[in-house]
Design goal:
mainly alpha
């Protein structure tokens, strides 16, 4: 969605009130939020992975947990905010 600008992966009720010219922008913002969620999940998994695999020292501390949590929260806010901004609500009739 970030690259293509295609909003069809979003549920229809997330894009039902979106103007046709804004669909690509909504798709890009929602895609960016999804990428941020993915980065957050990867960062949060590093401390657990460091227990079984040799990873750098920074992956064993609190840094990936803090950054991963921040990426998760910001990504969810970006997705939710973009849907509310362009659609008017999370679930539109």
């Amino acid at each position: 969605m970030v690259v293509s600008g295609d909003a069809t992966p979003l549920h229809s009720y997330h894009r039902s009130n979106v103007q046709p010219q804004d669909l690509a922008v909504l798709a890009r913002w929602s895609g960016l939020g999804a990428v941020m969620l993915g980065v957050g999940i990867i960062l949060l998994s590093l401390p657990l992975l460091a227990k079984t695999r040799p990873l750098p020292g920074w992956a064993r501390g609190m840094l990936p947990v803090v950054l991963g949590g921040a990426f998760l929260i910001i990504g969810a806010v970006v997705i939710t905010g973009s849907i509310v901004y362009y659609n008017g609500a999370i679930v539109a009739p």
